[in-house]
Amino acid sequence: MRRMSYAIPTQPRAVRYHATGKPEEVLHFEALPFTSPCADDEVVVLLEMAVVHPSDLGMVGGTYGRLRTLPAVAGREGTGRVAFAGAAVTTLKPGDRVRMPEDEGVWREAVIAKASALRSVPTDIPAEQACMAFINPPTALLVLQEFVALQPGDWIIQNAANSAVGECVIQLARAHGLHTVNLVRSSEKHARHLKALGADLVLADDKDALKALAGALQRQAPRLALNSVGGPSAITLTRALGDNGVLVTFGGMTSEAIRFPTREFIFKNITYRGFWMDRWARTAKAEALQGVLETVFARLRDGSLHMAVDSVYPLEDFAAALARAGAYGRSGKVLLRGPGAVHT
Predict the structure, then answer these.
(1) CATH, range 13-133+309-341
(2) How far is CA 224 from the centre of its chain?
């Protein structure tokens, strides 16, 4: 096998911000201080692929649940390739794929990091899928298994089913023998695609959803509801649940308050829970996180999980990538490509 070699930039650049605010106003492509070669226990990692998430922009804007010390590099999720390993490093070698260090900021051409702090990522998974393995798929997997002891044949219901997490939920639920009810803004627009992923029912998230659901499910009420919208949609999910059902909220696309219908809350003994992947990853035992990621990698490898990619932009074209990420009609995630994606 031919040895991979990478050109390490002498002044790597990054998408950086010195103050929180509107991304189009505060983000700049700047050169960073960089010392290479690295220390004996460190490696140089070049960005391979990174993802553009709404939470990235929330962090830049100052509204996310955890903010970075300024000045900061933007971006939370991506993969890189080891370009150089210090003399004492035995766990990694040039060409190995790793997760880019999240706390350092991901939208950068290169980073120097302790080898012991990096998480290896399989190289037999396409880069466009591997770079998205750490936030949305684990979120989908954990909300399916952490709150209700679901059994094959059980039903769940979710809103925003055409979101990245929603599509992961559909595919992972199918792999575990679960049935899904999926609420979307337009069932005509999304039904065909979501059913191809394994969705059982796709319904418009409107005032008629409960009536349509009652006719379709009869006595098989969902045991778990997944909410990332809020407002009236969360009420629909609550009313759809059966006795002792659980509603888990992990997002709030509308920014509307979550209100519970008193009748269902009392007579059905409904439970409301919250979930934040960031908190879980920082508090879980290392073996628990590794187990989740191994499951995700296995699903990506065998094709039972696949995440849609809308477009890929060079890192330096981050402004165009952000514009596309916020555009109507996008058909998947927008990715940023770094120098680690090209090797000789």
Answers:
(1) 3.90.180.10
(2) 20
